[in-house]
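Attaching the record inline, Q. Sequence:
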Amino acid sequence: MSQTISLKKKSLRNIHILLEGLSLKGAVSRARTKLDQKVLDAFKEVGEEERSLIEEYDGTILENGQVKFPLDEGTKISSKKVAYEKADKELFEESVIIPEHTEGQFERLLNTLNDYDQELSGNNASAYDELLDALEALNMSEGE
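Structure, as predicted:
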């Protein structure tokens, strides 16, 4: 039976960076690579969703990557920018569901990451924590 994990969209980039940097071998390395590809695909999809939101609120992406929104007539504010920022925040609070690629993939990752003895800090530590929470949630749901 295929399992799934749930990850917040706002954490996908950091989880990708964490997975990419882990030093693993054998079957666990393959399991990590398969998960990382799914995380990266989801991250790219979020980028597309974000670009769609920018267009929906009449924003323009400038060459430097910044987004510009039209100002309300006669003012120095943009109600479209305010609405976009609210929608963008909601987008990144959503979760994506990532399916297991091969049977036992998530269990192998969980066991290895629980025993991972390399030092992690900053964004990697936060990504590690969220990823482990998602993997541990599988064991809790199996016990129900």
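DSSP finds five helices and four strands in the chain. The radius of gyration is 19 Å.

More tomorrow.
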